[in-house]
């Protein structure tokens, strides 16, 4: 049942300019049950986003605070030359963020789904992952 403020919307993406950069900010409301968080697997980018004060932490906390029950974490840029669909890098990103998500109250068995993908090529999003490219994910 939507509240009086929601009027049936589950989320709204708003573009804002912060420090000279254009950013998309997702505003959640009480109906949002599942939230998709995109993190970068590129060396250095994941670490910057996840370090204290990084947007990865902030977005996960905002989602949980807004009442999100399930979180889908897309590990993006798996096609980057620093990553090359590496299972080790995927696991490193997943294992580094997992304790923080658990601390926020997400249950890893019921509430979290991790998926490798490439936003640039659409693999793992629009197109299924080729088993030769990513045999470790099924």
Overview of the molecule:
This protein is an alpha/beta fold. It has a single domain, classed as 3-Layer(aba) Sandwich (Rossmann fold), CATH 3.40.50.300. The chain contains three helices and five strands. The strands form two sheets. A three-stranded parallel beta sheet has the order 3-4-5. Strands 1-2 form a two-stranded antiparallel sheet. A hairpin with a 2-residue loop joins strand 1 (11-18) and strand 2 (21-28). The radius of gyration is 16 Å and the shape is globular.
Shape: globular
Major sheet characteristics:
3 strands, parallel
* The CATH C-level class name: Alpha Beta
Q: Count of helices? A: 3
The SSE string, one letter per element, is EEEHHEHE
Topology:
Layout: E1 11-18, E2 21-28, E3 34-40, H1 45-50, H2 55-65, E4 70-76, H3 87-104, E5 112-116
Parallel strand pairs: 3-4, 4-5
Antiparallel strand pairs: 1-2
Helix pairs in contact: 2-3
Summarize the structure.
By secondary structure, the chain is of the alpha/beta class. It has helices spanning about 45-50, 55-65, 85-105, and strands at about 10-20, 20-30, 35-40, 70-75, 110-115.
Q: Which labels suit this protein?
A:
single chain, 138 residues, alpha/beta, Rossmann fold, three-stranded parallel beta sheet, two-stranded antiparallel ribbon, 3 helices, 25% helix, disordered N terminus
């Amino acid at each position: 049942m939507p509240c009086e403020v929601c009027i049936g919307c589950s989320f709204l993406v708003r573009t804002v300019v912060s420090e000279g950069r254009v950013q998309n900010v997702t505003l959640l409301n009480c109906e949002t049950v599942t939230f998709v968080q995109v993190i970068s697997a590129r060396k250095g980018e994941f670490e910057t986003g996840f370090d204290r004060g990084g947007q990865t932490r902030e977005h996960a906390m905002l989602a949980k605070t807004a009442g999100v029950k399930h979180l889908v974490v897309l590990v993006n840029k798996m096609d980057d030359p620093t990553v090359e669909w590496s299972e080790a890098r995927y696991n490193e990103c997943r294992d580094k963020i997992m304790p923080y998500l658990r601390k926020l109250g997400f249950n890893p068995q019921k509430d979290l789904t991790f998926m490798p993908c490439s936003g640039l090529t659409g693999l793992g999003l629009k197109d299924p992952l080729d088993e030769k490219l990513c045999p470790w994910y099924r």
